[in-house]
Amino acid sequence: MTRYVIRRILQGIPLLFIISIILFILMMNTGDPIATMGGRSVTRPADRIRLTRQLGLDKPIYVQYIYWLIGNDWTKVDLNGDGIPETSGTRRGILRGDFGTSIVNRGTPALTLIVQRLPNTLLLMLASEIVIVLGSLLVGIYSALKQYSTLDNFITTLLFIGYSMPIFFVALLSMYIFAVLFKRWGLPYLPTVGMFDPQVGQTAGQVMLHMILPVLSISLVSFAAYSRYIRSTMLEVMGQDYIRTAKSKGLPRRSVVLVHALKNASLPIVTVVGLDLPLLLGGAVVTERIFAWPGMGRLFLDHVSRGDMPVVMGILMLIAVAVVVFQIITDIVYAWLDPRIRYD
Amino acid sequence: MSRKSGLFPVFAVLVILSMVLSGCGGAKPAATTAPVTNATQPATAVPTPQKKVATFIWTQEFDSLNPMYTNMWFSTTTHQLWLCWAWNFDENNEAYPNLVTEIPSLENGGLSADGKTITLKLRSDIKWSDGQPITSEDFKFTWQMFTDSHNAVNSAYPYDKVSDIETPDAQTVVVHFKDPFAPWIFMWRGILPEHILRPVFDADGTLDKAAWNMAPTVGCGPYNFVEWQSGSYARFAINDNYWGKRPKIDEIYLRFVPDDASQVAALRSGDGDLGTFIAYSDVPTLQQSGIKIMTQPSGYNEGLFFLINKKLGNPALLDVNVRKAIAMSIDRDGINRDLLLGLTKTPASFWDALPYYNNPPLTNYPYDPEAAKKLLDQAGWIDHNGDGVRDKDGVELVLRYGTTSREIRQNAQAVIQQQLAQVGIKVDLSNYADDLYFSGYGQGPAASGKLDIMEWSDGPSGFPDPDIYYWLCSEIPTDSYPAGSNWFFMCDPELDALIQKQATQTDPVARQQTISQINQMFYDKVYWLGLWQDPDVWAVGPRLSGVKFSGVTPFFNIADWDLTQK
Predict the structure, then answer these.
(1) Model confidence over B38-76: pLDDT tens digits?
(2) Cα separations (Å) of A266 from A144, A269, B498?
(3) % residues pLDDT > 70 (chain B)
(4) Does the structure show a pLDDT above 70 at A343?
(5) pLDDT tens digits along B298-325
(6) pLDDT tens-digit readout, A180-222
(7) Binning pLDDT at 50, 70 and 90, where does residue B25 land?
(8) Other C-beta atoms lying within 10 Å of the C-beta of residue B404
(9) What is the CA radius of gyration of chain B?
(10) How far apart are CA A15 and CA A327, in angstroms?
(11) Among all residues of chain B, which has the CA nearest to that of A208?
(12) How far is B538 from chain A (nearest CA, A)?
């Protein structure tokens, strides 16, 4: 197993290089950071020329990639526009842990911006994932055991309604009902936006209160898919011979379902969750925007719309690394869940 | 065997547990908040009951608070809270002194006759929030930092027009320009504290990474900056060292809420006292909730620009009569009435918000499709092949009309396409993200001559100064000058001469005459076609009173704002 893990990690390195090149080329062609630097006015020509030079955007794309990768402190740059490189570069490159500085938040390290937002996103997304997985497990197991019962049909219909609704609709609707209208009707109400009320401060109670609507929105849309996965794998497993054997041996129903059946039925779920977890880092772009949740999704959206390469590449590479790492973890969890699986 | 599953109580307990655990995960302010600022006072929480605390909703988070590194309206608008300009502008967008004793003019000797020297006389009682006096050295330092090549500033204009600054004493600033410079009123929008930033510049060789950019703990406004939590909010509290009028509101929070619908919900539920850039479609809903809508001209008007170039554009647009026909084919008043709920008007002049320069005031081309058809017939554009689209010498009258993807623009495009089709002009529509649309030559569609009709909201570049420069012949983008701003690829020598002339005329009367000629030419030759006025639209909650706005320095009278407690 150790050899397998090391092999997978080593395979991941060239993969990450290829991903970084593809993403870099893609990001370079999706917009010009200088285009929006004029604010409400179009950027002035003299400023365009100067900023293109000062921010290193006049270099060929492969040179910009190399500077991003290994820095430019080994060379000089021309800041004053006389054509002679006179100032030493200050970038160390991503391989030395320097994600670069944001073009939009000039001078702020990209990693600082990412690290500020990451815990907020993990909080929201992990809570949502836990709610989704637990809720789906319960609904999925019930659906499998009481297939086609009235309650099963009712719950399934509700879930598919939630699945069909666009998330921004669910988010705005829940905001209007539980925040605006409930307050107007004199009922206990939830806050509209934000992670906490700045006048009260970032307390556990405040964060939990502000999390209810965003988590509800994210979960409602995802319950259906997960619960159907669990329902179908449970049905398949419950029909197996060893389950019949366990029942005939007189084991309690809870033990048959939760120990023998669920453990085997959960293999596909582990795959889905394993694939989902790294993507959590990207945040829920629409939900974060609507609820003004200060997470990675909003950071990505704000910075990609202004062509802020260092921050955008930092986020994307973080997600790429997480995907590679979580795929390895998923394989290990597989082997733990199913002793028949061996990698060596 | 009991069929009753014990699962639901388990479910309930687990959900509650997970919420509690994840909520606890957030209860570590030091770790999770990690504010952008690294030199701020701690986020002390609850204001005392007597404090008046207002919350403004900001739909865009500022990128930097240092005026060097941002041109975002959402950043510069905060200046009247915590920073200071040499002069502010009132609700009529007229300048009045702030740091100076009087606005420079020819009469008081502040402006030299040749337009190349401006002398500022500073007040002697002005100070930074740490008690240090604001002096001429701060002004000179500001100019030096904006123009130093080691600072990647967003815009060096207009400081790059200055050749030298003398500071004969602490209250006198003598600014020398390379050439006569008429738009000087655009200068000194945010003075930098020399005593704080000079040591930083000397140590780092640049101000790009200064902590002050994101946490300007020393300022010169009625409020002090306190903290900025990335993605969440920024906070300002009363400056006890302020040399001007003390405000009535003790603290102001700016909450960042990017979504328009969420902003409306927050305003309606009282989570915000002030909203910005309200969409016209949201105005009735807000008014019904007791929220006041105030509009303030800020120089911007939405309008159409035309590609008038033989090689790149459709030859039809070279003919002024075709452009006039287009002007008469679009029911612009109808667009204002139906798409913008009648809350704005059609601007006839690029200087619509500056009546001094739109003088005599222009009137709009009427909506007259029949007259438009006649003009097109006379110009030789007739539908020879019966396909519903006019043509001439084998060229079809098909125009490429592109703008950004903002919803109101797409709606207007659809209406305009339909109305132009009725007079036999075919229009192909396209939409782009902002950072692609406004990209330069070679990347941006407008800058590369790929759009016959372009649309965006614009106004005189240094409002309330009337200066313009896009239409200069020297600004046509080329391979050797890709930064050119003349995205219309047109050269009108008479217009070019007038634009160059007005930029040097410091005598307002002479300048007004030149601008009037340009104004008339824009109309006669249809170089620009106004669609709707684009004022700042504010939503003022019921708790606020005494509120006035300016189109240049929106919070100019923030000291008079008052708040009734909930």
Answers:
(1) 444 445 555 555 799 999 999 999 999 999 999 999 999
(2) 13, 5, 76
(3) 91
(4) no
(5) 999 999 999 999 999 999 999 999 999 9
(6) 999 989 999 999 999 999 999 999 999 999 999 999 998 888 8
(7) very low
(8) 17
(9) 27
(10) 13
(11) B23
(12) 17
Residues of A in contact with B300 (CB under 8 A): 40
Give contacts of A307 with chain B, Cβ < 8 Å.
Answer: 435
Contact between chains at B437 and A35 (C-beta distance less than 8 A) = yes
* Distance, CA of B320 to CA of B432 (rounded, Å): 28
Task: Write out the H or E segment, with its range, that includes residue A117.
Answer: helix A110-145
Query: Closest approach of chain A CAs to the CA of B379, in angstroms?
Result: 34
Query: φ and ψ at A323, to 5 degrees?
Result: -60, -45
Query: Tokens representing A256?
Result: 């048959």
Q: Do B440 and A142 touch (CB under 8 A)?
A: no
CB contact under 8 A, B231 and A298: yes
How far is the alpha carbon of A76 from chain B, nearest alpha carbon, in Å? 13
Contact state of A106 with B152 under an 8 Å Cβ cutoff = yes
d(CA A287, CA A293): 8
Q: Which two tokens stand for residue A41?
A: 């006015």
Q: Which two tokens stand for residue B525?
A: 């030759």
Inter-residue long-range contacts of B378-381, CB under 8 Å, 24+ positions, other chains counted: B378/B321, B379/B316, B379/B319, B379/B321, B379/B322, B379/B325, B381/B316, B381/B322, B381/B424
pLDDT tens track for B481-515: 999 999 999 999 999 999 999 999 988 899 999 99
Cβ partners under 8 Å of residue B492, min gap 6? B471, B473, B521, B525, B527
Tell whether ipTM is more than 0.85. Answer: yes
- Determine whether the interchain pair B23/A211 forms a contact, defined as Cβ–Cβ distance below 8 Å: yes
Is the model's pLDDT at B31 over the cut of 90?
A: no
Residue B426: pLDDT band (50, 70, 90) is: very high
Q: In 3D, which of B406, B414, B420, B239 has the Cα closest to residue B316?
A: B420
pTM, two decimals, is: 0.88
Interface check B30 vs A, CB under 8 A: no
User: Hey, is the C-beta of B5 within 8 angstroms of any chain A C-beta?
Assistant: yes
Rounded to the nearest angstrom, the minimum Cα separation between B377 and chain A is 37
- pLDDT value of position A83: 86
- B470 chain-A contacts, CB cut-off 8 A: 42
**Residues pairing with B404 in the sheet:** B432
| Interface contact flag, A39 B69, Cβ < 8 Å | no
Whether residue B69 and residue A107 make contact (CB cut-off 8 A), yes or no, is yes
Interface contact B23, partner A, CB < 8 A: yes
Chain A contact present for B43, CB below 8 A: yes
> With contacts defined as CB-CB under 8 Å, which chain B residues touch A51?
152, 154
What's the angle, vertex CA A284, arms to CA A280 and CA A288, rounded to 5?
A: 135
